[in-house]
Automatic annotation (TrEMBL):
Name by which UniProt lists this protein: ATP-binding protein
Membrane-spanning intervals of the chain: none
UniProt keywords, alphabetically: ATP-binding, Nucleotide-binding
GO MF, any single term: 3'-5' DNA helicase activity
Every Helicase HerA central domain range: 35-96
Family statement: Belongs to the HerA family.
UniProt-listed InterPro entries: HerA-like, HerA_central, P-loop_NTPase
Length: 372
């Protein structure tokens, strides 16, 4: 098997943790040798592709494979709620829950859409800083108590309290939330279902999880090597999650934390996401800005017209392997667990409905199943 992200080490290679990705795709469309992804060492990677070309599916293939690999633990950020199928691989789907103290005081104004330099933003910043100093298990209610006692104008205190009330309504903050390291304590994959969670709250969750996994490895609280798989990643590089994701990209490999970002909008990711990635899996892309981001991999072996080289079929991808400095076309294997993405098709629905009577047969159509 050709293993992406692994320096050639022919003797040990077959026994090292590897995730099966698919097969090489020959020019005539036939499947060639098996292709895998190295799971022995930590990596940073991106999965790109237009809508419907197979990004989430590929992320699911990787999550399944990681769930079967020794010594690692996949955690999936699932903004669309499509990774429930991982339960069939022994995985769990968790509602997001983070401690308010997981977001640093300096990031709270931004999280609440407040100006950090003064007024209500300043009141919130101080309240979080004071409340979290030397204390754990802080609840949003504690922060509101601090705000009420703050030495600040009434208007600023009232606005700060209102914004904290809004944050409480997101239902992601919980003073008793389990430590982030518990998400990656064993090999079973965890999908954090963020479907329907407000954007700011989802960003807070991603920040807390990315930073929490990193800190847990640095502090020696996590035996396994976590892999954070972020679907729709463009949504998280533009807000409070950004610094934590950048930390994983630039410094995650030293403590052993991997990051895989999937997006249909590569152009909306920062350059560092591509320049720091040693794994690049690219399904079909057409927008110039997105192809340009891919070109920033600055790999000479990618020279030529990239858009031309991208395969067109669903589940087909160009993979760029930094370790061996090669680019190949692959067909991603089929999932072993159910995939929740893709658009619904009317022909897949088993409605049990009686077909409509032929037009003009004179019968009283009455109230049909579909209109009740
Ligand atoms: N490797 C594959 N093998 C077989 N079918 C696949 C493969 N990859 C994708 N598909 C099919 O294509 C559909 C779309 O894939 P997927 O949901 O991953 O798209 P996407 O690129 O994530 O789109 P979106 O941006 O809408 O989330 C899937 O539901 C699945 O049926």
């Amino acid at each position: 098997m050709h293993v992406l992200g692994r320096e050639t080490d022919a003797e040990r290679s077959p026994s090292l943790p590897t995730v099966r990705l698919g097969s090489f795709l020959a020019r005539d469309g036939s499947a060639g040798a098996a292709v895998g992804v190295d799971a022995d060492r930590p990596h940073a990677g991106v999965v790109f592709g237009k809508r419907g070309t197979g990004k989430s599916y590929t992320l699911g293939v990787l999550a399944e494979g990681l769930a079967a690999a020794p010594g690692v633990s996949p955690v999936v950020i699932d903004p669309m709620g499509v990774f429930g199928g991982l339960r069939a691989a022994g995985g769990r789907v968790a509602a997001p829950a983070i401690r308010p103290g997981a977001i640093p005081a300096s990031a709270w104004p931004d999280l609440l859409g407040l100006d950090p330099t003064g007024g209500p933003g300043g009141v919130v910043w101080r309240a979080v800083a004071d409340a979290t100093e030397g204390a754990e298990g802080i609840a949003i209610a504690d922060l509101r108590d601090r705000v009420a006692e703050a030495d600040a104008p009434t208007d600023a205190r009232r606005a700060a309290a209102n914004h904290l009330r809004l944050a409480a309504s997101w239902d992601v903050f919980d003073a008793d939330a389990p430590p982030i390291a518990s998400l990656a304590a064993d090999r079973s994959p965890t999908a954090l279902d963020l479907a329907g969670v407000p954007e700011a709250a989802a960003a807070a969750v991603v920040r807390a999880v990315a930073r929490g996994l990193y800190d847990a490895r640095i502090d020696g609280d996590l035996d396994r090597l976590p892999w954070l798989l972020v679907d729709e990643a463009h949504a998280f590089f533009d807000g409070v999650a950004d610094p934590a994701l950048r930390t994983l990209l630039t410094r995650g490999r030293a403590p052993g934390v991997s990051l895989l970002c999937a997006t249909q909008r590569p152009g909306a990711l920062p350059s560092v996401a591509v320049s720091q990635s040693d794994l690049l899996i690219c399904h079909r892309l057409t927008a110039e800005r997105d192809v340009a981001r891919l070109a920033e991999a600055e790999a000479t072996y990618l020279a030529g017209d990239l858009a031309e080289r991208l395969p067109t079929g669903t589940g087909e991808a160009l993979v760029v392997d930094d370790a061996t400095e090669t680019a190949h076309t692959v067909r991603v294997r089929e999932r072993r667990t159910p995939h929740g993405g893709g658009s619904p098709r009317a022909s897949d629905l088993d409605s049990g409905e009686t077909p409509d009577p032929p037009h003009g047969d004179g019968s009283d159509a009455g109230e049909s199943e579909g209109t009740r």
